[in-house]
What we know:
By secondary structure, the protein is of the alpha+beta class. It has one domain (5-115): Glutaredoxin (3-Layer(aba) Sandwich). 32% of the residues lie in helices and 14% in strands. The chain contains four helices and four strands, in the order E-H-E-H-H-H-E-E.
Amino acid sequence: MQDVVIWHRPTCSKSRSALALLREAGIEPQIVDYVAQPPTVAELRQAIARAGLRVREALRKGEPEYAALGLGDPALDDDALLRAMAAQPRLIERPFVFTPKGVRLCRPPERVREIL
């Protein structure tokens, strides 16, 4: 399968597992270290929507930046959250996988099979 992309974080076991499942399926995806190459607000908005998620579901709440930026405040709208995620990409939940069949946040990693 061509045109497969993973927003990957090598230090994340879920991300490594999703990548391994892709490779077991014979797919060598384009690997994007989304912390080194952060997506734009528009790219984040599109990925989250295509995955069928709400913005808060794609936000890593355990990262220090989450508390430091006060992102738990329910008054913050999606635009504010997306701007924070683009500026601090460690806040983006991982891994996102993109295939011609769709987009998934692969937590658990086996969700990647839904779009293969």
